[in-house]
């Protein structure tokens, strides 16, 4: 079975998603939840096994149905997408655990099985984007994850969720259509869709206009999907209106998978020389919008009174930080960007678990309702504190390691101005994390806490695990080693 | 000017696809009616389908089907079938997106009583926390 893991990691959850509507007739939501948990549990096991195999062999190739690459579709696992795969599936399992009791927070009982089905398809779509070695296959998985995310967002409790889902659908579909068009130009220029073949044939065609146009369309399309500043307009309402369980997973992984796709296009398909020699303007443009996001994301977050909106704006900054790794094109910088995907997934996932707990106890996600939370719910308070510190990039937390690598990379790449930008964004982040920390732990004694008790353990553990990860990744060099291996494989 | 015209006529397929695409984008941006936006989105997607199909065209090519026995075409030149297959998938994707979009519009109409963007945004500003009109899907 083990040689088939690259395909099973996708097929098992995909098929399970089809079974849920049938089987949940017997046993209802409980059956549906068990199936989702089992399928994602298997995928998580498979992606960790793939990570281990990549550690030994460097990369894993799997020819779908025995058809070799240019004819058939190939799945390729290298250190980079093994890392992303592990991130997506593990956060998926934790979000599922959260949903065991968390579904009751904002979903009517009769909608829960359908919601779980769509959620499983969403996770499958993201894993598919990650593992495939064929650009058209990537587009199909991208659409699977997009369409399911529109549905998940639209299932939010308030009627604004419907409009948030609709707006994201329109903007997201434009982005996806741009990606499709870009892939079309690549096919027109090279006559192939396999990433490995594209990488071989493109360097001779760099002077052709359709190859340049393809890069523009794919980059802009992906920038919409990952909410890169200034194309982040859909994100705050989408994150804040989505049901609590879905928003944990959405915020922690969805935009990062699009960022991963940009890494794939820039490093594997076009090759790092493309941005340096052929299209330095594009490199500057991406750098400017990444830096603008890094500064303005946290700045806009300061003004928010809703916790989920605040976190969404801070994600705009974090995505900028990840994209920075794409344009630095230097071993340390690239590794920093890749490492930041993991770090941000852990921190943002933990923070959205807290937002979910807040919604479970107060029915809303107002920042001011966090007042006095630490007194009544110390575990939840600890989660939000640790994750917040990691968002700032305090030493001994995960965020510090990746920002350090990025700053080193920026200096080595001859872009020293990036360093003050990173510091400025950390400064703004300090302000809102400080505000949250003061509310949680040091609210005046006469304030009656809105959160009167802890949420059940099944909803506390996912947040605690992710927050714990922020510390573990901060003090060990294990993740950094993987990120550096991934960066080396990309830059080779 | 003459050269430009000649180029445009020679690449008329690309001109048509680009025009359709821009009309679609215009509709999405300029129209406030939610269904009209979806129509714009469909135009945009269709434009890309046409682009793909036009790159599969081979001059003098025929349907890429192998015939046995009588009626076999003598010409060995076939159109490239790959873009057609890709677009079959993309059309399915387009249909699913449209279905989800229309379903959302129906729910929006039930919850807000309107499908005009301006009125929805105005209604949201008036009352911040109203639950969705119906809980059942």
Notable characteristics:
heterodimer, A: 492 residues, mainly alpha, two-stranded antiparallel ribbon, globular, B: 137 residues, Helix Hairpins, elongated, disordered C terminus
Topology:
The complex is a heterodimer of chains A (492) and B (137).
Chain A: H1 5-23, H2 28-57, E1 60-63, E2 74-77, H3 79-106, H4 112-131, H5 135-154, H6 160-190, H7 195-201, H8 209-226, H9 235-241, H10 244-270, H11 272-278, H12 280-301, H13 307-328, H14 331-362, H15 373-376, H16 378-392, H17 398-412, H18 418-442, H19 457-475, H20 478-491
Antiparallel strand pairs in A: 1-2
Chain B: H1 2-10, H2 12-30, H3 34-55, H4 82-112, H5 117-126
Helix pairs in contact in B: 1-2, 2-3, 3-4
Q: Quaternary status of these chains? A: heterodimer
Shape call of chain B = elongated
Distance between the termini of chain A: 31 Å
The best one-word shape of chain A is globular
3D structure, described in words:
The complex is a heterodimer of chains A (492) and B (137). Chain A is mainly alpha-helical and 492 residues long. Chain A contains 20 helices and two strands. Chain A has a two-stranded antiparallel ribbon. Chain A starts with a helix and ends with a helix. The C terminus of chain B is likely disordered. In chain B, helix 1 crosses helix 2 and helix 2 runs antiparallel to helix 3. Chain B starts with a helix and ends in an 11-residue tail after the last helix. Chain B is an all-alpha fold and 137 residues long. In chain B, 66% of the residues lie in helices and 0% in strands. At the A-B interface, helix 5 and helix 6 of A face helix 3 and helix 4 of B.
